[in-house]
Design goal:
Blueprint: E1 3-8, E2 35-37, E3 39-41, E4 47-49, E5 52-58, E6 74-81, E7 84-91, E8 94-101, E9 107-113, E10 133-137, E11 140-145, E12 148-157, E13 160-165, E14 181-182, E15 191-193, E16 200-202, E17 213-215, E18 226-230, E19 233-237, E20 239-241, E21 244-246, E22 249-250, E23 265-268, E24 271-274, H1 282-285, E25 289-292, E26 295-304, E27 307-312, E28 317-319, E29 325-327, E30 333-337, E31 348-354, E32 367-370, E33 373-376, E34 379-383, E35 395-396, E36 398-404, E37 411-414, E38 425-429, E39 432-436, E40 444-447, E41 467-470, E42 479-484, E43 488-492, E44 496-499, E45 515-518, E46 528-530, E47 533-537, E48 544-550, E49 555-560, E50 574-579, E51 587-592, E52 598-604, E53 609-615, E54 620-627, E55 630-638, E56 644-652, E57 658-664, E58 669-670, E59 682-686, E60 691-696, E61 702-703, E62 713-718, E63 723-725, E64 745-757, E65 759-762, E66 765-768, E67 783-790, E68 794-795, E69 801-803, E70 811-820
Antiparallel strand pairs: 1-70, 2-63, 3-4, 4-70, 5-56, 6-7, 7-8, 8-9, 10-11, 11-12, 12-13, 14-37, 15-24, 16-23, 17-21, 18-19, 18-23, 19-22, 20-21, 24-27, 25-26, 25-37, 26-27, 28-36, 29-30, 29-35, 30-34, 31-32, 31-36, 33-34, 38-39, 39-40, 40-41, 42-43, 43-44, 44-45, 46-47, 47-48, 48-49, 50-51, ...
């Protein structure tokens, strides 16, 4: 009978799928396992039992568990400074804030917020938690999701925060809101204002609910019929008599039979008429803003699908570029360059701010003019007044403004509103705030002015002005994530893209270009920068891919890093990366699976090492975040009450179990446990070196005196089980390709190389670690070194299972397996 000693000295590839079991000839086979559960994979090749979790906070009074919801509580880190760090816990319409004290890392619940500074309920609906994206700058966290306007969580003190709705900057006069606009209308649809401005005045005398006439302080500038805004109500009138509007009725949709007091503000409100049906009453109820030429108007009344009433902020006009006027030699004809004017011959315009040009004075250019001819979509002509003719063709005229009540195609609607929804992706990159992916503009990307995070005015496309980009790459897709890494990386529902960062110059309106790279698409779990790449869960929910720039191809690739362990990736709801966790040099990525497990990936790119493991618990892992090198989780578990609850917990290397803590007792009796557990909880108990057994908490206490008297301190919690299960133990002869695959064989012994280990089992056989000379009353000493196990039985696919029946530390560097065949 041949005897072979097979070293299994590395598990650096971690857990692999069953498809690898036949590849005994590969490097992966000899450095992987069939199961790596609740272990950390070490860069040296061994494995170490993961830390347990320490219970920090019970959300029982805030959240009721609902198994049908993928995410009910989500935690995110907020780091204001090295010594002021926080955990934000988002749940349905609520935000709980925890302070992490530095350097003790004590976690304290400091605030619960249900409303914003205006008393409005927070919009963090349970259905939105998974798809929310967040980014931080200074003392503010920005939260984005397509169903609500961006929220700011603002730190106002060491232990106080408030929630505000993001608001765009406005011009000094308040006439312009520096937010994005977009032409949602069908191409060629015109809009015609009945007047170019609103005329303000005040009510002169009170009016009651049965109004038929309205007396104003002044009617100068008002047309003989139209609508006026009194307070928040539209009143229609048919005539003017001195300073009185007559034939008054309640006007546009939404008007109410209200009374109004003397001195109330009144504004004439022009009508806007579109050539095709466009409006409904929601434009009024949401006070939607349009931009006509350079002017913003707010819709305050609805008449029909083609007619609304608006409040004009300023004058509906267009400021032309410098030297937009050109004289024609020997005449009074002036050619005007007006980009996308949408006007027709015979339309009337009002010119202001024009300067003289050639021999034609400014006074002969400014004023009301009629368009003589249309040259093209950007150019038309007028005839100047006065007696002077231009002697030569000349460009000039300063930077005039053009106002007109003619129909025009130059109009847009605000991009973000309850009608068009809001950005779902947000990040900071190159000192700009970047937004992307609304419902109505799923492939839209916007960037603020440089250093001005509330100003999205595109201006004249100067380098510091904002960007408004539509990817226009053929397919319509929804942008879900923006990641600031080597470049601005864009993850959509169907593809991965990026905007290159130039070597000598930042991204500007004139050099920004979107480049499509790979076609996999991303889910809602946020992509995370990781070891020089960006990891993302693709839209299938079963693959983690590595978005990595390759110099050879001068492009990004998205290779799957989970292909050999695809069974561990189960439609993750959240992901994060951390370096230096658990006092280890490896970089770790964690993926919170929808089944409550954690898929854990480690990598040392420089050493070309990477692999997967899986962590589970008694209950479910629900959310995850990290502060510095410490890892926190929201766990769902039954504390003994028979009901699943949400708890904030920390992975703590001092905790040998989950949902664990150190408790003090007297004469082996531990009371007052209901501050942590409920009566009926079945817990494990151990002290510094001995397992004391399994107990059910009753009357808030347990008694371990029958096992070990005079215990005054113990760990109490829920045990989790580490498991390392090898692939079928086999050998491969590189000279002739010979293997033992499929042959009956017997594992006769296994020699384990362990570090600081007090408890281990091999194929279900426990090793009691105690030196023969030990005094049985003293604490046991952990084993560092080699221990041999004898194994019985034959198998065609023999495997070794390393596990543990009691909650102690366990580190396995490797093993040597002796096989007879």
């Amino acid at each position: 009978m041949a005897r072979v000693r097979i070293p299994l000295s590395s598990f650096s590839f971690g857990e692999v799928s069953s498809g690898v079991t036949a590849r005994v000839d590969t490097q992966i086979y000899n450095a992987a396992a069939e199961r790596v559960r609740n272990f950390i994979i070490l860069s040296e090749g061994g494995v170490k039992k993961r830390p347990g979790t320490k219970r920090l906070y019970n959300f029982a009074n805030e959240i009721t568990y609902d198994a049908s919801k993928r995410m009910q509580c989500r935690i995110e880190p907020f780091i204001f400074s090295d010594d002021e760090q926080y955990i934000f816990a988002f749940s349905h319409d609520q935000l709980d804030i925890f302070r992490v004290a530095i350097p003790s890392f004590t976690v304290t619940h400091i605030q619960k917020i249900n409303t914003d500074v205006n008393g409005v309920t927070l919009p963090f609906d349970v259905e939105y938690l998974e798809s929310m994206t967040v980014t931080t700058k200074g003392d503010i966290m920005f939260v984005a999701q397509q169903n609500f306007m961006i929220r700011k969580i603002v730190r106002t003190g060491l232990t106080t925060f408030q929630v505000e709705t993001y608001a765009f900057d406005e011009s000094a006069s308040g006439a312009l809101t520096h937010m994005p606009f977009f032409a949602f209308q069908t191409s060629g649809t015109t809009i015609t204002p009945s007047a170019t401005q609103s005329t303000p005045t005040t009510l002169n005398g009170a009016i009651n609910s049965s109004v038929t006439s309205v007396t104003l302080a002044s009617v100068s500038g008002l047309p003989t019929s139209g609508e006026v805004l009194i307070g928040s109500e539209i009143i229609s009138y048919t005539n003017i008599s001195t300073n009185t509007l007559t034939g008054c009725t309640r006007g546009a949709a939404g008007s109410t039979a209200a009374s109004h007091s003397d001195g109330v503000s009144v504004s004439f409100t022009p009508r806007l008429t579109t050539s095709l049906a466009y409006f409904d009453d929601s434009y009024r109820t949401n006070s939607i803003r349009l931009r006509i030429a350079d002017t913003e108007v707010a819709i305050v009344g609805f008449i029909s699908s083609t007619i609304v009433v608006c409040l004009v902020f300023g004058v509906i006009q267009k400021r032309l570029t410098v030297e937009a006027l050109r004289t024609i030699e020997g005449g009074k004809t002036i050619e005007i360059t007006h980009i996308g004017h949408g006007l027709s011959a015979g339309d009337s315009i009002v010119i202001t701010d024009a300067a003289s040009i050639a021999t034609i004075a400014a006074g002969d250019i400014n004023g009301t003019k009629t368009i003589v001819s249309i040259i093209d979509e950007n150019t038309y002509t007028i005839t100047a007044g006065g007696s002077n003719n231009a002697s030569i063709s000349t460009d000039g005229g300063g930077q005039p403004k053009i106002a007109s009540t003619a129909a025009t195609t130059e109009w847009q609607e605000q991009s973000y509103s309850n009608l068009r929804y809001y950005p779902g992706a947000i990040t900071f990159h190159e000192n700009r705030l970047w937004l992307a992916g609304t419902v109505s503009q799923p492939d839209g990307i916007w960037a603020s002015k440089s250093g001005q995070y509330f100003n999205f005015d595109i201006g004249t496309a100067l380098d510091n002005e904002s960007l408004d980009i539509t990817t226009n790459l053929g397919d319509i897709f929804t942008i879900r994530h923006l990641v600031s890494n080597r470049d601005l990386q864009i993850f959509s529902s169907t593809a991965e893209l990026f905007i290159p960062t130039l070597t000598q110059k930042p991204i500007t309106p004139t050099n920004a270009i979107v480049r499509r790279q790979t076609p996999f698409g991303a889910g809602h779990a946020r992509p995370v920068p990781f070891d020089g790449a960006t990891l993302f869960v693709d839209r299938s929910g079963t693959n983690v891919r590595e978005f990595l720039f390759t110099e050879g191809e001068a492009a990004y690739t998205s290779a799957s890093i989970s292909a050999i362990a695809s069974h561990l990736v189960v439609t993750p709801t959240q992901s994060l990366a951390t370096k230096g966790a658990f006092a280890r040099p490896e970089t770790f990525a964690f993926f919170v699976n929808s089944d409550g497990t954690l898929a854990v990936f480690y990598s040392l790119r420089g050493d070309k090492k990477q692999g997967w493991s899986m962590w589970d618990t008694q209950g479910k892992f629900h959310s995850l975040c990290s502060i510095e090198n410490r890892l926190y989780t929201i766990a769902v578990r039954d504390d003994g009450s028979g009901t699943n609850k949400f708890f904030l917990e920390e992975f703590d290397e001092d905790m040998p179990m989950d949902f664990c803590d150190t408790f003090s007792g007297s004469n082996s009796v531990f009371g007052s446990l209901t501050s942590h557990f409920s009566n009926g909880a079945v817990v494990k108990v151990r002290d510094a070196s001995d397992f004391l057994g399994t107990y059910t908490i009753g009357s808030g206490s347990i008694d371990v005196s029958s096992v070990k008297p005079s215990v005054t301190s113990a760990f109490i919690g829920y045990q989790y089980t580490p498991l390392l299960k090898t692939l079928p133990v086999d050998s491969y002869n590189t000279r002739n390709g010979a293997t033992m695959t499929g042959m009956p064989r017997k594992i006769t012994s296994v020699v384990l190389d362990m570090v600081d280990t007090l408890s281990v089992s091999v194929n279900g056989n426990d090793l009691i670690i105690r030196n023969v000379t030990d005094d049985m009353s003293t604490a046991r000493t952990p084993i560092t070194g080699h221990e041999e196990f004898r194994i019985l039985g034959y198998s065609r696919n023999p495997r070794i299972e390393i596990s543990q029946s009691t909650p102690f530390d366990l580190q396995l560097n490797g093993m040597v397996v002796e096989v007879n065949r």
